[in-house]
Amino acid sequence: MAAAAAGPCGLRALLLLFLLAALATGVAGTTGFIKSPLSQKRLTQDSVELYCEAIGTPIPEIQWWFEGNEPNETYAQLWDGARQDRVRINATYNLHSTSTISITNLTGNDSGTYECRASNDPDRNHLSKSPKVKWIRSQANVFVIERPDIRAQVTGVSGKLVLACNMTGQYLPIQGHEWTHGDKVLQTDADASAFTSYTIEGKMEEHSGVYECVYKTNPVIKGHLNISVPPQVTAYKKSEHGNEGDTGVLVCKCSSFPPVTSWVWYRHGQDPIINGSGRYIIKSSGNKTELRILKLNIEEDSGDYHCNATNAYGQGSATVSLRVRSRLAALWPFLGIVAEVLVLVTIIFIYEKRRKPDEVLDDDDGGSAPLKSNATNHKDKNVRQRNAN
């Protein structure tokens, strides 16, 4: 009665405590599930993943079995690489057992019951002996629903782009829509209509990329729209500076869709620069390219460089101006400051030199008068003293 009052969560907790106690006492053959696979709904061409976790002493083995929806179909074991390599099974056995089965590019034939089986009996896989402890089992149903057809289109009208999706044929109940671009949600509503649209202000070149119209159904249904343009190339810096003998780095990037398939660097009026030739190193990855020029030379390397990008819809380019300075160029500001200090010190020295004699004469004149006065007073005093005698 206490276990019934505890509910499913309480029963699971009691089972886990029992298994842990069995592990502590070393009871062989004890096995139980910590996590069981969950039933799911998926669309054709989607993927599904089921997870199972078991505990026991010794550590149990986990297997995956499948039973289809056909009347005469029976359980068959699944293995890694089954169904034309669409099935992947990953398992780990460390303290306890965990196993994940994933199936990609689902079809209607993937609908059915998937069973996670666990056992640690030594005779579990013996061909003639029956295991003393039977395999414990946990099941989950996978429902694969036919994907509805979504017609998507992009229309340019008066400086605006109108993105539209329309679901045709039979489809699941719709609770609303979302429009997304990457990880950003652009618009959401609670309309149950099979048609939805989103309007963008501006030109295609400014808003290229992959957009999704998301139908809030169970499972979620998505349509894709691509706004594709030729590469819109920009220079990281339109003007670069480098010192003679250093390494110059010029960078261009492109954020438009579809991605760039090839990059080419060249100087104005010259042939394309070949990677690794001379002092040039080119590193390109996706929508970014970088040109490195080793040991810059003032006469040979100064000038305009062009980065050219190509994709399936055309080409685009940008220009970077490189200026190479002499190594002594960085010293000129410092030398200028030193010169200014020297001039200032010279002016102060000359000024002090010119006014020093005048100051000395003034001191001599001011101090002579008191000396004469004192001498006179002493002479008079001595005279008076002799007369008195």
Strand order of the largest sheet: 2-9-8-4-5
The 3D shape can be described as elongated
Helix content: 10-25%
Structural class: alpha+beta
Q: What is the end-to-end distance?
A: 145 Å
Question: What Rg is obtained from the alpha carbons, in whole angstroms?
Answer: 44 Å
Q: Determine the strand fraction and express it as a percent band.
A: 35-45%
Count, helices: 4
Low-confidence stretches: 1-6, 18-28, 371-376, 383-389
Summed over residues and divided by their number, the pLDDT gives a mean of 84
Largest sheet: 5 strands, mixed
How would you describe the overall organization of this protein?
The protein has 389 residues and is α+β, with helices and mostly antiparallel strands. Helices cover 23% and strands 43% of the residues. It contains four helices and 24 strands. It has a five-stranded mixed β-sheet, with no helix packed on it. It has a four-stranded antiparallel β-sheet with strand order 1-3-7-6. Strands 13-12-15-16 form a four-stranded antiparallel β-sheet, with no helix packed on it. A hairpin with a 7-residue loop joins strand 4 and strand 5 (76-78). It starts with a helix and ends with a helix. Residues 1-6, 18-28, 371-376 and 383-389 have low confidence and may be disordered.
Question: What does this entry show, briefly?
Answer:
The protein is an alpha+beta fold.
